[in-house]
Give the backbone structure.
Amino acid sequence: MISPGIDIAIVFLVFIALLGCGMAIPFAIGVPAALYLYIQGGLPALKGVGLVSYGAMASSALTAVPLFILMSEILQRGGVSPRVYRGLSTLCAPLPGGLLQTNIAGCAMFSAICGSSVATAATIGNVALPQLIARKYDGALSAGSLAAGGTLGILIPPSLVMIIYGAFTDTSVARLFMAGIVPGLLLTALFMLYIAVHAKLVPSAVPKEPGPSSILEVMRAFSDLLPFLVLIVLVFGSLYLGFATPTEAAAIGCALAIVINAVWGQLSKALLVDALRETVRASGALLFIVFSAALFSYAITFAGVGEDLTRFVVNLQLSKYELFLVVFLLYLVLGCFVEGLGMIVITVPLLHPVMQQYGVDPVFFGIMLVIFVELGLITPPVGINLFVIQSTWGGRLSEVIRGAMPFVLMMIVLLGILVIWPGIVMWLPDQMRPPA
Amino acid sequence: MTGVSSSIDQAPQPDQAVGVAPTVIESISEGVCMALLALMVVMTCVEVLARALFDYSMQATDELSAYFLLAITFLSFSISYVHRRLAEVEFVMQRISPRARRLLKLAFDLFSIAFVLVLVWQFARLTQISWESDQRAATHLATPLWIPRAMMLIGMLTLLAALCRDSWLRLRFSATDRGPK
């Protein structure tokens, strides 16, 4: 009989091997999970698969996933990104860093309507890069700022990763959303600060941008941004005040997105049908990973690996800081092989009990986890944001990586700040009103 | 595409677009999912408005939304599969010969089919038990549970059909070096 520790190590190796060789991620998670279940309990263990699948996927928490994707799709098809970028470029131009500051501010604002980092990087990148190239901004810094800015997509709510983490750990998604706001804004400020310092130290990297020439121009910029600000305030205000659940907030967001498009004269049956179709395809891909991960989670629970691991870690008598350092290193290594969501769904069932044993709030751990995933998005070799920006820009990948590295350091600074002052994460969720 | 192809956010790349084409099964599934999604938005908005304006709740919105999500989830697996939207890491695939790539894909197809067969078997069992013992949700609607559970089974069957079609094409063309990559 192989010990459970070796068992799970073999299963992880099979998973990494299948993933690395190019098997689609949901199957690369599901196949070892089914195999592990069979090894642990034979056919009787497989008989729980039906009920576990039903319990995991008929989940009220997950209903917000397709609705937030739909809200973002409707807005994107109505031309949200050029408007946001145009409005912010007028307002941010006088700041040191000019359009690079617009990249970060634009990504932060777009993140508030889109729960995906890659979509944020790709959308803002497509709008920004032609202008940055035309105005002769430093290529590496431009690409790096967009790749890094994109990562705000999963930290600033709505975040699909947070919804999925919430469903897996039975943590309030509304509290997770609120917890992401302050760290998200702090990270935005750190990114903008770095750009400002870089622009001061290396003036040749950033051309001087003229500020708005008249109050009319400023008003026009605000009118571009106003509809999104209203949408963001209504969607997250309803959550904060306990008026709506995340699913209801997402549905309100969809309705408001339709109204905004109608006001702009962009609304059409074709737009809605396209948005619905794209949402179904994107949701299917995402929820397939969640489903496979639920099976994986069932397999490790069935084998009692979570308890074994918790006991093992507790016996090491690590301090909370040492534990976070170990988890950070684990994700740094895992991030080299596995993409973000896969990383979360595979590790959370194992780490969640350990964190509970250490008295770490699941909301706090969720936010740390999101930042770990963000780091994976802009560090090679699997940093998908790097590839997205490189393919849009057409430059060399090494340049994008070079441009993104200072932003990686900013994220590590943020992690340090949050570990030292966890109140930054927990303050806003603790102010929330309970749901009606 | 270098590195990772993410099905979540990106359109399929040209070299990935070759493969099993969507059939009438996927088209119907997609239409059903789109309709359920639209219905979910309308139903949830009506619930929020009714609660805010008339202090009235339909009591069934959460339950129905969860069933809709279940149907959307399982029916959309085959849709995402045929549209090449499932994320995969491509480091190894890009560095091996086309023949080796096809063999590796074929092996993955077989593993995937075996996995989906297990799920079909278990979901059929669950649906049958729910039907025979007349299991119902402990809610106002008292929904017969075989209905949402049958959706899981139907979704898995459509995925199985798509996987089998894909593998068959790969196998059929492997000798002639054509067909799905």
Notes: The mean pLDDT of chain A is 89. The radius of gyration of chain A is 22 Å. Chain A has 20 helices and no strands.
